[in-house]
Amino acid sequence: MVSGDSTPQQLVARALKRERTRAGLSISEVARRADIAKSTLSQLESGLGNPSLETLWALGNALGVPFAQLVDSPSHPVQLIRAGDGPAIGSANASYIATLLAPSPPNARRDLYRIVAEPGEPRISTPHARGTTEHVVIGHGRAEVGPTTDPVELGPGDYLSYPGDEDHIFRALEPGTTAILVSEHI
């Protein structure tokens, strides 16, 4: 949950600096690994700009950390995130918004997201870290989900797990499609 003095951009800025420092990498090296401009990374570390989901995934992969570590806020014993609140990151290419609900705690390897998507351009994800598995449960609407080579149409209450370490897709087939996504890391 974002506190009153921390915007999503500030959370991302602190996390990027923290993880880059832990990895012992320069801004230039992280930018190269993520295939983004050095100036873009510099702006993000300064709390400027509004990174897309794709940019944050690329940075997480470049730093060797789950996406959630880049948008996580300080933990609290009891956490409430009301619908429409929380660190929401939109896709640059699709009407797809992922809101981090529960990042992986230390020594655990899963992140929990609420997805809101609209028909149109699908969200096509490049492979995440080796061994990643994604689990999706549709809440409302319908969507094509899974490996890009063999997606499955899901409806309300349907569950699907698939390898997140290969190209995969989420294509909303009805307006207002929602889902819960768990990304499980080895």
Name its key features:
single chain, 186 residues, alpha+beta, 434 Repressor (Amino-terminal Domain), Jelly Rolls, six-stranded antiparallel sheet, four-stranded antiparallel sheet, 10 strands, 30% strand, globular
The rounded distance between the terminal residues' Cα atoms is 26 Å
CATH class of the largest domain: Mainly Beta
Task: State the helix count.
Answer: 5
| Gross morphology | globular
- Series of secondary-structure elements, N-terminal to C-terminal: HHHHHEEEEEEEEEE
CATH architecture of the largest domain: Sandwich
Main beta-sheet strand count, sense and barrel state: 6 strands, antiparallel
* Mean pLDDT over the residues: 85
Radius of gyration: 16 Å
**How do the strands line up in the largest sheet?**
1-2-3-10-5-8
The SS-based structural class is: alpha+beta
Could you name the CATH homologous superfamily of the largest domain? Answer: Jelly Rolls
**In total, how many beta strands?**
10
Helix content: 25-40%
* CATH structural fold name of the largest domain: Jelly Rolls
Unreliable parts: none
Strand content: 25-35%
In total, the number of domains comes to: 2
